[in-house]
């Protein structure tokens, strides 16, 4: 029975959470804190704070941890599955249809029309990251890190993984 | 086997290095799937992001799951999902069980702060890729015009991106084909 509740608690935020992981946080809180009372508001914000300081997608970290708290390892798996599977299946079906008609002019146009939207979404996201960095560590640090990482990735073709690791080391020593 | 290993490593990196939530990992997935392993073209990746954005749920598991499925079938899908999700969930459980609060460690905050501009650069690079692709198909003038309108709709009128994407998808499907005769001929040949 508890597994069914866990499933519902993470299925609903997964389906309604438009705009990716961060958008579903309040929905998860509603289920976990208000409806099922598995955690208090304080506990939830503690979990969220730690989740935010770890890498990886936030929604699955919340699902995995809270599922584990409530229902052990099985609870954890149920929660992640409920959170991830519905939209993934939908995605595979829809993209399957799209790929099948890849050469039809309609689908080609579809790809074309969507590109500027993606560009705007990505561009705005880039701007938000720079501006949050500006208010966090200031203009000069932001510019230096941005320019150095751009040079490494674009000119010297260093894999982003190494650039990020280098940034971790730099930040751990100089921005703490 | 090699393929499944590649998928696992690729999405393990994405899961472990994607600080700042799902959207921050999009450029990492792009680097792995398009640049490094060449599993797909930038155009196809754009379609996946568009559809992923128009569907609910976390973006990164949709990307990992779909890319895994497309390249390595059901096994690839499960493999990629596990790689992108599991390590950080385990880390989270271990940390929350052992330490009461990691927030006090200043160096963790410093590490996260230093990664933010790097992600900004990666997002900017991807933006550029999509812009130049868009202008190849639509021409610079139309592209800039569309950018302006889309920006207005999204950020001045605060319309949800999913609505904009779905509207454009419908427009593309409903619009009549100009070269339908030509297309028919191409179809016969192929």
TrEMBL record, chain A:
Signal peptide positions on this chain: none
UniProt KW keywords: Cell membrane, Membrane, Transmembrane, Transmembrane helix
InterPro entries: CHR_Transporter, Chromate_transpt
Domain of life per record: Bacteria
UniProt similarity note: Belongs to the chromate ion transporter (CHR) (TC 2.A.51) family.
Organism: Pallidibacillus pasinlerensis
Compartments where located: Cell membrane
Transmembrane segments: 7-28, 73-98, 110-127, 133-151, 158-175
Entry protein name: Chromate transporter
Pfam family, one: Chromate_transp
Membrane topology: Multi-pass membrane protein
Automatic annotation (TrEMBL), chain B:
Annotated organism of origin: Pallidibacillus pasinlerensis
Localization (cell): Cell membrane
Coiled coil: none
Pfam families, alphabetized: Chromate_transp
Superkingdom assignment: Bacteria
Keywords from the UniProt entry: Cell membrane, Membrane, Transmembrane, Transmembrane helix
Keyword Zinc included in the entry's annotation: no
Family designation: Belongs to the chromate ion transporter (CHR) (TC 2.A.51) family.
Listed name of the protein: Chromate transporter
TM helices/strands, residue ranges: 7-30, 74-96, 108-128, 140-173
Record keyword Cell membrane present: yes
Membrane topology recorded in Swiss-Prot or TrEMBL: Multi-pass membrane protein
């Amino acid at each position: 029975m508890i597994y069914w509740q866990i499933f519902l608690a993470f299925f609903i935020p997964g389906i309604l959470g438009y705009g990716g992981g961060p958008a579903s946080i309040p929905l998860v809180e509603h289920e976990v804190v208000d409806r099922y009372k598995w955690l208090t508001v304080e506990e939830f914000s503690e979990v969220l704070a730690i989740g935010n300081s770890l890498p990886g997608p936030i929604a699955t970290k919340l699902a995995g941890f809270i599922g584990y708290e409530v229902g052990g390892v099985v609870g954890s798996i149920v929660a992640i599955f409920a959170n991830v599977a519905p939209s993934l299946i939908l995605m595979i079906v829809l993209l399957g249809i799209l790929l099948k008609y890849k050469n039809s002019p309609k689908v080609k146009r579809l790809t074309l029309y969507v590109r500027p939207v993606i560009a705007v979404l990505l561009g705005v996201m880039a701007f938000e990251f720079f501006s949050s960095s500006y208010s966090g560590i200031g203009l000069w640090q932001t510019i230096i890190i941005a320019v150095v990482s751009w040079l490494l990735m674009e000119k010297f073709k260093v894999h982003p993984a190494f650039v990020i690791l280098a940034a971790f080391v730099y930040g751990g020593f100089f921005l703490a | 086997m090699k393929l499944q290993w590649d998928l696992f490593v690729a999405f393990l990196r994405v899961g472990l290095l994607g600080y700042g939530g799902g959207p921050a990992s999009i450029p990492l997935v792009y680097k792995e799937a398009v640049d490094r392993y060449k599993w797909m073209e930038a155009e196809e990746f754009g379609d996946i992001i568009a559809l992923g954005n128009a569907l609910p749920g976390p973006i990164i598991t949709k990307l990992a799951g779909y890319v895994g499925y497309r390249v390595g079938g059901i096994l690839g899908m499960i493999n990629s999902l596990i790689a992108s999700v599991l390590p950080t969930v385990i880390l989270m459980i271990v940390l929350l069980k052992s330490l009461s609060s990691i927030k006090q460690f200043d160096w963790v905050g410093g590490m996260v702060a230093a990664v933010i501009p790097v992600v900004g650069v990666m997002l900017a690079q991807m933006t550029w890729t999509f812009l130049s692709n868009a202008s190849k198909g639509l021409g610079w003038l139309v592209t800039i015009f569309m950018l302006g309108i889309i920006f207005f709709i999204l950020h001045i009128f605060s319309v949800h991106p999913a609505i904009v994407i779905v509207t454009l998808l419908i427009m593309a499907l409903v619009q009549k084909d100009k070269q339908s005769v030509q297309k028919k001929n191409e179809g016969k040949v192929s």
